Amino acid sequence: MIATTWRVIGVGFSLVVVLAAILLWGVDPGVTDFRGTGVDQVVFWTYDLRTDNLTVLMLAVVGVVSTCVQVYSIGYVHERVASYTALVTLFTAAMVTVVVADSLFLLLIGWEVMGACSYLLIGHYWERRDARSGAMKAFLMTRLGDVGFLFGIFVLGIGYGTFRISDLGAGSISPAVLTTGTVLLLVGVIGKSAQVPLQTWLPDAMPGPSPVSALIHAATMVAAGVFLIARLFDLFVEARTTLTILAIVACVTMLFAALCAMAAVEVKRVLAWSTVSQLAIMFSGLALGTEDGRHAALFHLATHAAFKGLLFLCAGVLLHQVGSAAFIVLRRYTRKGALRKQLRVTFVTMTIGLAALAGVPGLAGFFSKDSVIEAAWHVARDGSTVGWIVLVSVCLTAALTAFYCVRLWLWTFFRTPALAGALGAFEDDDAMADLDEPDTSKLKDAPWVMLAPLIVLALAVFVIGYLDGVHLAWGIALLTTVLAILGALPAYSLWRRGADPRPVVLEHEFGFDAAYQRGVVVPVEWFAKLTVLGDRDVIGAYVRAAGRAGTLASAGFRKLQTGNVQTYLTAAVVGVVALAVLAGVIAS
């Protein structure tokens, strides 16, 4: 109990530090002033740190979400608490390092420590095979992207003659070098933020504890990619080719991930694909290359942290209290309305989170998503192809988002009038037979130590949207509201009929995992086996033969050293006679 108290105090103290930074440096923490250029430099030993509006925004996001996660974890995590607490704290510290760094190498340290912590936290339940494989997959795919990230740092640092972030762009650099450096950084961002084609690790990371999922998806790890591009925004604006690549990747990813979320049958997996899609919306705002686009992307980052952290913690309550967050299991409890009636706080807060994600007017997600669409419209109106692509993609994604939010809400908390035939993939599962009539007498909401963070984040979902100052473009607001309704109605209709739209291509998530298995994993395994065979049967054979020859030679020489004087004299006489005969033969 003492340890848990101290960990909450420690993380909560970070919020005090953020407030102190605001008072000392006079930086406006609100999302209204992302355009500020003033930067205060701080030198701490040999490391360069910085504070500006973006820094304070991210520190506030990380501090609030991390505090909620630590408090929530007191009631959620009961196994290996010490290591879990240490890793979550280190994870948070690594993200803070990335945020405050004014050195590319210091940023790289925080970037890599986050990757290591995510591997260990995703595999917290290491006795489960899916947790081990998910952790390994996350580690390998993000490390693959980080190879490009490292070389990007070298290219930009050497090109500008400095590795100090605030000095990048001050010197001259050829367009080719700038494009190469930013594209390499983008490779690392794509891996860290789970964008196409390195997107499959994030949904498979769901076996980790739900508080860890909330931290990864809301405040650390995947948000680091958005932060990095926002931090180096001026460089990316100069590299227009890189922004075009980013726009294409973002638009493909947001639609791809939204379609996958429409077919997922487990709450956390739906939310994971949703995170991939929402991150792509942020990247699309940055890809516009305007200050309005950057502002909108960061605004959406802040609102997303609130409602996505809330949703993952709500999913954790389902796992903690029910034992599963798969739709087919939750349906057994919904037959009698148990989830709505006995998990009232969870139901209300999760409803708020899903409404914000779907873009219901008045909630945070509505304002931030509209700001991205508005920024895209301004760029598209000037004749930009990228602007039109982003505008259309975000609008389509908004409709798809409303679809899977309503689907998730209805299938989780409400009884389907015609259950037979729905979720057919589970019909042959014998384990489901025991769940037809679950015992709901002991079902109750989570303890208050877990519910309090839900309430805090739910309030943030209501408030944070108004911190930007409500400047609605009524035409865009009407458009997004109509899109949300158009997405919600089909989900409601399918739910009423007990149908679940999961074509094979969506059920298998477009076959990316299978393709990677055949195209990457299997060849690598064969090359690994070939390498082992070459090392063992070729190189190793020569080494073993050399050793065996030496052993045999030493054994032969050992037989000559008998210690018998007569043997030595006989050998000497035979040798002399042999030499004499040989000399005679040669002389003749």
From TrEMBL:
GO biological process annotation, one example: ATP synthesis coupled electron transport
InterPro entries the UniProt entry points to: ND/Mrp_TM, NU5C-like, Proton_antipo_N
Gene3D superfamilies assigned to the protein according to its UniProt record, in alphabetical order: 1.20.5.2700
Major place of residence: membrane
Transmembrane segments: 7-27, 54-74, 81-99, 105-126, 147-166, 172-191, 212-233, 245-265, 270-289, 309-330, 342-366, 386-406, 448-467, 473-495, 568-587
Bilayer disposition of the protein: Multi-pass membrane protein
Localization, UniProt: Endomembrane system; Membrane
NADH:quinone oxidoreductase/Mrp antiporter transmembrane domain sequence ranges: 101-381
A Gene Ontology molecular function term of the record: NADH dehydrogenase activity
Organism superkingdom: Bacteria
Keywords, in A-Z order: Membrane, Transmembrane, Transmembrane helix
Cellular compartments per GO CC: endomembrane system; membrane
Domain NADH-Ubiquinone oxidoreductase (complex I) chain 5 N-terminal: 48-79
PANTHER family to which the protein is assigned, alphabetical: NADH-UBIQUINONE OXIDOREDUCTASE CHAIN 5 (PTHR42829)
Protein name: NADH-quinone oxidoreductase subunit L
